[in-house]
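User: Hi! I have a protein structure encoded as tokens and I'd like to know what sequence might fold into it. I'm fairly new to this, so please keep things simple.
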């Protein structure tokens, strides 16, 4: 996880400052917890002996933008008596949903439209791939704002413009109404499509033991040691 993020449209100076903050945090953690650190490494496999994991096969990586590619010929074995894997999250494979590698096929990061449907958008981790609450929050706010603006611009230009000289409150109310109309005018799903979605919901609920209401289900599945 990146320990510090530069602001949007950061200057070279701000990027350099963020890198210094990251190095300082890493140095403090290393001094305190006495560990070593190797950067730009990718795990390519396990080293297994007598049925037990005794290390990892790792390769050095070349970074280009957000892509990290293993460098041919740089692989080596990193032996260790204990291997602890980190926990992350990747999008789940869903039947019928197109994927590119581990990711769903969103068009771009600023207004991430799913390639298979005009009105399906993604926000947060599933698009940015960055495991960080703040990055996900800021991304979702930015996308949602842009999405609302786009709907207003494309579908209700007249309505939005007619309130442009009104007070801020009236303008916001006008925009909300325009958005409401834009959503209302979208084509509805057919009865069969709604029924198919409901069948999927019920199948999923049965799979996880959700048989009555949320309160009783969450009480049933909450681990006894949850803090
Ligand atoms: C162990 C762990 C520790 C972490 N610690 C930190 C930390 O200290 N600080 C920090 O900033 N970040 C931390 N993170 C990362 C942070 O949790 C995520 O970056 C952040 O929660 C992403 O927010 P999100 O809204 O994009 O996605 P999520 O919070 O993952 O929300 C996605 C939601 O969609 C739901 N969902 C998924 N598939 C479906 C489906 N098919 N149908 C319906 N619902 C679905 C999921 O159940 C989930 O509720 C940690 C992550 C992990 C795993």
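Assistant: Happy to help. Inverse folding works backwards from shape to sequence: for each of the 227 positions I chose a residue that suits the local structure. Here it is:
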């Amino acid at each position: 996880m990146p320990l510090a993020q530069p602001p949007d449209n950061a200057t070279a100076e701000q990027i350099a400052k963020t890198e210094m903050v990251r190095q300082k945090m890493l140095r403090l953690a290393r001094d305190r917890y006495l560990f070593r650190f190797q950067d730009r490494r990718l795990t390519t496999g396990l080293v297994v002996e007598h049925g037990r994991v005794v290390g990892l096969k790792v390769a050095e990586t070349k970074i280009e933008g957000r892509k990290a590619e293993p460098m041919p010929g740089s692989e080596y074995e990193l032996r260790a008596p204990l291997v602890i894997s980190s926990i992350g999250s990747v999008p789940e494979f869903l039947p019928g949903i197109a994927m590119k590698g581990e990711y769903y096929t969103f068009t771009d990061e600023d207004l991430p439209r799913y390639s298979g449907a005009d009105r399906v958008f993604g926000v947060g981790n599933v698009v940015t791939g960055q495991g960080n609450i703040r990055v996900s929050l800021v991304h979702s706010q930015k996308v949602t704002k842009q999405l609302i603006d786009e709907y207003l611009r494309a579908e209700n230009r007249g309505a939005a413009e007619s309130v442009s000289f009104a007070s801020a409150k009236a303008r916001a109310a006008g925009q909300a109404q325009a958005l409401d109309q834009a959503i209302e005018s979208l084509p509805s799903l057919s009865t069969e499509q709604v029924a198919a979605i409901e069948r999927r919901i019920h199948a999923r609920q049965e799979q996880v033991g959700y048989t009555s209401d949320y309160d009783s289900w969450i009480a049933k599945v909450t681990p006894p040691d949850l803090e």
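A useful reference point when you look it over: Residues 191-226 form one domain. Feel free to ask if any position seems puzzling.
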